[in-house]
Amino acid sequence: MATLGTALITGASTGIGAIYADRLAVRGYDLTLVARNTEKLQALASSISDKTGRAVDVLAADLGNPVDLARVEKTLREDASITMLVNNAGIGTHTTLLDSDVERMEAMVRLNVTALMRLTYAAVPGFVARGGGTIINIASIVAVAPELLNGVYGGTKAFVQAFTTSLNHELAGKGIRAQAVLPGATRTDFWALGGLPVEHLPSEIVMQADDMVDAALAGLDQGETTTIPALRDVELWQAFEAARRALGPQLSATQAAPRFKTTI
Ligand code: NAP
Fold first, then answer.
1. Residue nearest atom 2 in ligand 1 by C-alpha distance
2. Residue 77: how many CB atoms within 10 A of its CB?
3. What is the CATH number of the domain that holds 152?
4. How far apart are CA 195 and CA 189, in angstroms?
5. How many domains in the chain?
């Protein structure tokens, strides 16, 4: 059966990652599923391969653990069948600095930032050498609205958004596609794990995970480099991006701006 290559998906045992696994297999990708929960990964792998006939491998790894992370990096460097990386594994919370444990914050940075960055570094050289590849990085709307949840979580997702923007800039013309996905509230275990079950959110702002993933993949098909599944008025994002680019010529100069001139 013809294949589009293998998609390696992190955080594939449940939630958004499990939906990506289903949708990408249906599209014709073989899969490598990464997360900690081996039983869930194996159950998902069997059900997807029964449904689609695709080859589905399981790679159990705690991406917050450098030894496990190195194993996944090795797979990305050495398996030339891999054509897509979905950096989806992530954790978050809503707590403020004063109510947050800094060790948990650091663990969040290790997973949401360090693992995503190292896996991308492992995948990209092979993609470039083979003339193509796709990277989907799951950020969040808190990348542009850090006031909404925990500040470290917002910071990690701003990293994902900025890093993806830079990937598209650095890799232009090399056949690589990078997409940052900025979901709003999505109905998964993420919320309960972070200490605020999703039932506590106003239902009118919560999207089903399968609707979110289908919209994000439609955005990928349309060539978007940043996709905000809930955003109705795409002109708002375009204006935001235009304002950011307009800052460019004024961001570095020999002299401070006139408004900072001291009058002693
Ligand atoms: P989820 O249901 O909690 O799933 C998280 C996935 O990440 C699970 O498969 C989990 O599997 C895996 N994971 C967690 N820690 C891991 C670790 N140390 N090593 C390897 N895998 C790990 O959450 P989700 O909502 O699907 O979240 C997926 C992504 O979407 C995250 O990056 C999140 O920040 C982002 N996002 C979510 C929402 C939302 O409202 N749900 C909104 C915006 C962005 P194991 O437990 O088996 O390891």
1. 15
2. 14
3. 3.40.50.720
4. 10
5. 1
pTM score of the predicted model: 0.98
What CA–CA distance (Å, rounded) separates 61 from 11? 10
Structural domain includes residue 239: no
Q: Which domain holds residue 136?
A: 6-234
What is the CA(256)–ligand 1 centre distance, in A?
A: 43
The answer as to whether 248 is a domain residue is: no
Segment 21-45, tens digit of pLDDT: 999 999 999 999 999 999 999 999 9
Mutate to test the pocket of ligand 1, among 8, 19, 36, 109 (most ligand atoms within 8 A of CB): 36
* CB contact set of 87 (below 8 Å; sequence gap of 6+): 10, 115, 116, 119, 120, 135, 136, 137, 138, 160
Atom of ligand 1 nearest to the CA of 64: 18
- Tell me, yes or no, if 29 is annotated catalytic: no
Active-site pick, 20, 29, 121, 153: 153
258 part of a folded domain: no
Q: DSSP 3-state assignment of 93? A: coil
- CA 13 to ligand 1 centroid distance, Å: 9
